[in-house]
Every structure is written in structure tokens, then in C-alpha cells.
Amino acid sequence: xxxxxxxxxxxxxxxxxxxxxxxxxxxxxxxxxxxxxxxxxxxxxxxxxxxxxxxxxxxxxxxxxxxxxxxxxxxxxxxxxxxxxxxxxxxxxxxxxxxxxxxxxxxxxxxxxxxxxxxxxxxxxxxxxxxxxxxxxxxxxxxxxxxxxxxxxxxxxxxxxxxxxxxxxxxxxxxxxxxxxxxxxxxxxxxxxxxxxxxxxxxxxxxxxxxxxxxxxxxxxxxxxxxxxxxxxxxxxxxxxxxxxxxxxxxxxxxxxxxxxxxxxxxxxxxxxxxxxxxxxxxxxxxxxxxxxxxxxxxxxxxxxxxxxxxxxxxxxxxxxxxxxxxxxxxxxxxxxxxxxxxxxxxxx
Amino acid sequence: xxxxxxxxxxxxxxxxxxxxxxxxxxxxxxxxxxxxxxxxxxxxxxxxxxxxxxxxxxxxxxxxxxxxxxxxxxxxxxxxxxxxxxxxxxxxxxxxxxxxxxxxxxxxxxxxxxxxxxxxxxxxxxxxxxxxxxxxxxxxxxxxxxxxxxxxxxxxxxxxxxxxxxxxxxxxxxxxxxxxxxxxxxxxxxxxxxxxxxxxxxxxxxxxxxxxxxxxxxxxxxxxxxxxxxxxxxxxxxxxxxxxxxxxxxxxxxxxxxxxxxxxxxxxxxxxxxxxxxxxxxxxxxxxxxxxxx
Lengths: 349, 294
Known about the structure:
Chain A is mainly alpha-helical.
């Protein structure tokens, strides 16, 4: 019986062990590499947040970066020193100008605000058909961007907010990443998530058997909003500044690309995508800086990394639409001895 | 009085632009259930072709822009979408999203991301008197071109063989194939038309703003998407009307809102859209046959 439950928890244990190993290696590496690893772990939280909704529902969301933005701004406003706020945001309402929360409750508040927004916009949007909902989430991104970029008295508008406490290093990032993976895993083991995945595989059949698709999509969207909000908080307190431009199309593209390349169908895919793309981005960054060969620096043109990332995403969707992980969770070592014979179609979990 | 007429003309001309964009997207969605993000890059490539051919006669530059958009539309169909023809709409959506960013990033790699200025068709910037009201001739041209293209497309879809085949394909693709409609040809024609629509929009936008930049198409396309969704995905007239309404609403809000709320106009438009969807989740003009049949 204990073997059974360990086997069930295996993907979670394995994924966290892999992240722990990466973090351990990174913590011994030079500062620059450590920062890259931290950034990678922050991105991982964003990808896992997106996965919770997209992976389980099969509906693509372009709106999760908006939830990241909300998380980032809420946490920034709650944690900035009152003196800094009076400089950057002279018109801030009094009660908000005075608060100076500790970082952890502020992070949770950021996540919860994002979850609340996800719930509210999800109420109408989750009733749409899958493809219309995807497009509508894009509208959520645009609206959030417009509002945050112009609500000058509270967000500073187009200007950056600076002077946030910088507390995200490689270990805190790891702790949050592990927590995000655990939350995503715990959620996908619930009955609600199982029903949602049933609707992903066959919407009509699921509906006919009594699955309340709208409700389960909304639950997933809210949890996804929470994790994305946390990812935004982490990014803000990793960079120390918040700028509305950070949370728009480029970040959306990056997060979606990571999830698609890793494989939208499983948590393993989300983690794999974030890790592989982080490594690849670092390599391409090195290529853009250039390699000195006998006094001549050979450098790739700037912007090559983005073009290659987009190309990889395109190739993956054309030739391996289930991504690196193929829609499966990481396998129990020693093989699937007592799994049913491999005659099932597709192989999605 | 002057201001009211001017605002209305402005609203109709911008509405026309979004209607044309939404129609290009709706056409492709109709024949292959693909939400084409890369439609924005068709607009973009036409704009950059205008820059490339600047100095040549206007006609040459415009023909170049149309050819570039049509060729890119056909190539993307062949390379990125044909292999996925039987895939589900979500996969197609991701493919077009990836393609859109690939084209955009490749362009940035080649020419940089900075906006480029171009004085295209300066004649159209002139003011003209219409019934005692001063209007920009570009706006009149935009409205005339939009009406002409919408009319032409309606004629094409209603009165020609290919138009009939395209409507049949949009209604039930498998049935249309069984009845002898050539899938590849119909889809290629749809993409070519979307290229023509994109190039038209591009010429008008460039003449209006005088700026070409890598993201010029994406911004238009996002708003046009929303238009197709409130119009009712899969319905062509729905797409055109939806796009038109969103464009008109944007301009009217710009004129009617108090100045400090104007910057939020897109937010107001999209919130209004959300409210419409709350009551009509299938859009204003739901398409028949969109729901999967068992």
C-alpha cells in the first residue's frame, strides 16, 4: 500500500528532486549563472501556473501574463518603503502609501489578487467555446496592460516602480518553484481536474456524462491565476523593479513557447519546457555575446535567440505536437510492470 | 455639427479597417477553423514592402505590397498550416501564434525593431470640403475602399463558383470535399484573399500613420480577433460587423469619454465585449454548424 502511494506521488517527487539538483549545482556556480538559474526557476513558476489551466482544460490562455502583472504590482505596492512610494507615486491613496508589509504576506496577497481577477474574468469567459475563450484571454491581457499602463496614480503608468525589496535568490526561487509544482500536482490529482481532463479529451462526451465543464474550467483558471500571480511577484522581487512593458507580448510568447515545447499535456512537460528553454536561452545569449577566436569575436546577431525560440516552437507543433514530454508524466523507474498492455490509443495521461 | 460629422466619419473609417481585418481572419477560420495570428504579419510584410519600394512609382510599391502579402499568405499555408489540416483548432492556434512570432522576430533580426517613418500617399492627407464639412480625404478613401472590398467579396462569395465552394467548405468541410470541392484550391484562394485584405489594410494604415513597425499588424489583429468573436466565430458577415462595431466603439469612446478616461478606451471596449458575450456566448451572429456534431 505504501508502495502504491509512493508510486502515485512519484512524478512530484522526481520533479522536485530534479529542481533541487539544478538548484544545488547553481548555488555553487558563479553569480551570473546563479542569477540565470533563479530567473529560470521564476519562469518555471509562470509556466506551471499556465499549465494548470491549459494542460488540464486543453484551452490555450494568453491572459496569464496579465495575472503575473497584477501579482507583481500588488506585491510591489505593499512592500515598497513609504518613502520610495512618496517619490514614485505621490498621488497614491493615503492608506496604501503608508503600508509596508513583510514580503511573504505581500506575495500571498499578490497571488490572491491575481486569483480573484482570474475568477472574475473567468465567470463570463469560461462559458465561451474553447477557441473563443482563448482569444478572449488575449483581450484580458490587452485590457490589463492598458489599465496598468495608464492608471498613473497607483501604478506609475509607463514609468518603472523601483526600490522593491530584492529577496528572490536561487534558494527562495527553488522553494516557490517546488511549492508551485506541488500545488499543480495536488490539483491535478483531484476529481475536478480529472473531470476537466475528460472534457479536454472529448468535450461532447464529457458534457453528455454530466460534467459541468464551465465550473471545472473556472476552478482551474482561478488556481492558474494564483500561481501566475505568484510568478509575477517573484519576477518583481527578483528584478527589484516593475514595469508594465515587462508583462506583455514578449513574456506571453516566452511562457506559452515554454509550455508548448515542453508539452502542454503534463506537469512534467511544463517543467521540462522551462528547464530546456532556460538552458537554450543561456547558450544563445552566450552566442550573441560572442566567442573570441584568435583575436576576432564571432557573435550571433542580437535577436537571434528570439527568432530561434519561435522557430523551435513552430517545429515542435508541426512534428511533435505533444512536446518534449509527449503528454506523459515522468515514469516510475523500473518500467510499467503492472500497467495495462501498451495497446491504448494516443497515450495521453 | 462639424465635429459630430467628423467623428462619425472617423468612426466609420476606422470601423472599416477593422472590418477588413476581421474579414481576413474570419475567412480563414471559415475554411479551416484556424485563428490566424499571422494575419498581422501579412499586414506587416506589406508595410515593409512599401518601405523597400519607396521612391518607385506608387503603383509599383502598392503592387509589390500586395504580391508580398499574397505570397507570404500562400507560403505560410503550405508550410505551417497544411500539415496540420486535420489537427484540432487549439493546435492550429498555437501554430499560427508561433508562426506570427517567428515572422516578427525574424524581421526584427533583419531590419531591427525601431519604427520606420514613411510619407506614403501624402495626397491623401489633404482636407477636402464635403457638403460644407472639412474632412480628410484619406478617411473618405478608406470608407470607399472598405465598402468596395466588402461588396466585391460578397459578390465573389455569392456569385462565383469558387465563392460557392468556399461557403460550402465553411459550412461543412468534409461534405464539401465529398461533393467534389478541391480542398487545396479553396483554402489557397481563401489565403490569397486574406493576403489582399491584409495588404489593403496595410496601405491604408501606413498612409494614415506614416509609420511601419514590426508589431503594427499584431495590434490590429488583436482587436479584429475580438471583433470576430463578438460577431460569432465562423460567420463571415458576423466577422465584418463585429470588426466594424469594435472600431466604431473605439473612436466614439475616444470622442465621448472625459479626457482623463480616454486612455482606457480599449479597456472599456473589451469590457463591453465581455458583457455582450455574457448574454450571447456564441456571438451576435452565431454560425451554423460550428458545434461539433456527434
